[in-house]
Amino acid sequence: LKTVPGVIIYGEGDARRQVAVLSFNIAGLTPSEVAMQLEERYQIICRPGLHCAPIAHQTIGTFPRGTVRLSPGYFNSGEDIEITIEAVCEIAARKRSGRDIDNY
After folding, report:
1. What is the rounded distance in angstroms from the CA atom of residue 18 to the CA atom of residue 12?
2. How far apart are CA 15 and CA 19, in angstroms?
3. Cα 4 to Cα 88: distance, rounded to the nearest angstrom
4. Other CB atoms within 10 A of residue 38 CB
């Protein structure tokens, strides 16, 4: 996702130094707009906002909006990950093209 225009990834970027949690934003969209699209269009559940950590968000510059957080786990398949990547790419592409995000 870090190569997708408009997608901003937060965190170390080194899988050896972080847990299986991904925080990101899409330029021009609020975390809640992205989360709503992921759930309604793709049936992907995530968590938008400050994640009970407002000071952490102040540190990374995402306060007061927060981020979108994905937390893949043991029962997620490689296919689940690919579908999620494609979904985020589509949402970012729609935003870049100026298409109304509500009309998907």
Report:
1. 7
2. 7
3. 9
4. 20
pLDDT value at position 65? 94
pLDDT in tens, the chain (104 residues): 989 999 999 987 787 888 888 999 999 999 999 999 999 999 999 999 999 999 998 999 999 999 999 999 999 999 999 999 999 999 999 999 987 655 55
**Predicted local confidence at residue 101, as pLDDT:** 58
Peptide bond into 5 cis (omega under 30): no
Helix axes 78-97, 31-42, angle to 10 degrees: 120
Of residues 95, 104, 97, 42, the one with CA closest to residue 70? 42
| SS3 letters across the chain | CCCCCCEEEECCCCHHHCCCCEEEEECCCCHHHHHHHHHHHHCCCCEEECCCCHHHHHHHCCCCCCEEEECCCCCCCHHHHHHHHHHHHHHHHHHHHCCCCCCC
